[in-house]
Amino acid sequence: LVTPIPMYFGESLVQWDAAIIPILGSRMNDVGPSQAEELSTQLWTNATYGSQQIDGLPLIAAAAGTYAGQSRAAYTALQANVIAAGAIDPTRGALMQYIASAAKFNRGEMPDFGITGPGTWTRLSRDYTGLEQYIITPGSSFDRVTEGPRAGFKALMVGDVPIYIDHTYGVEGTLYLFKKRYTAFYLHRACAFAFSGFASTLPNYQLGYVGLVATALETVCVRPGSVTRITGFNFDTV
Q1: What is the pLDDT of residue 143?
Q2: Buried b vs exposed e over 180-213: b needs ≥16 C-beta within 10 Å?
Q3: Which CA distances in Å does 141 have to 13, 130, 144, 149?
Q4: pTM for this structure?
Q5: How far is it, in rounded angstroms, from Cα 169 to Cα 118?
Q6: In whole angstroms, how large is the CA radius of gyration of the chain?
Q7: How far is 34 from 51, CA to CA, in rounded Å?
Q8: Which residue, among 129, 225, 209, 216, has the nearest Cα to 177 in the 3D structure?
Q9: CA–CA separation, 40 vs 165, rounded Å?
């Protein structure tokens, strides 16, 4: 992953005496969010084996094709647990079934957490909010509490497995269940968000400088069976 940081001659002249927001400083600060945006997008969408992008969840959590240079048909240990829910609401009862399936497929290891899109998560939350109760302590009332009564959850717990929401990149109708010990990012220590320094653009017949931040990394799952992908859930429009 390479992010260029240009600084052209004309921009330098303008910035020298009249800097409202330093262009170079803002571009340097934007490298982190820019690379995070690209990595998050590819993590949720890339299903192509052997691409220049990081391996995405659709590629890791698959039951067919090639992964880690091996055929999943020949090496069944590389197959993930893939389930088609079939246009149903993501309720606690339904998720308990799939969590049990994930544990069985992963030789008895329960998933650590689940993650899904905002519309799917809010559809699951319907199965919780209707059961909430508010208990008032005798001699007290909600108007005496600064923060008011608490309602809702940051993570919806199903069978002791927290289900989290990815507001920006989560794929609606799809839920991933993970055992985190088997999946990680691996960065090359010689190219871990390394900055090249600035070089002149004169060889390209331009006045200015350009630098870049380079990262060599890959998403690695040493046990794809630890990942369960459930598709087909109904979801809310948010």
Answers
A1: 62
A2: eebbeeeeeeeeeeeeeeeeebeeeeeebbbbbb
A3: 64, 22, 6, 10
A4: 0.82
A5: 9
A6: 24
A7: 20
A8: 225
A9: 14
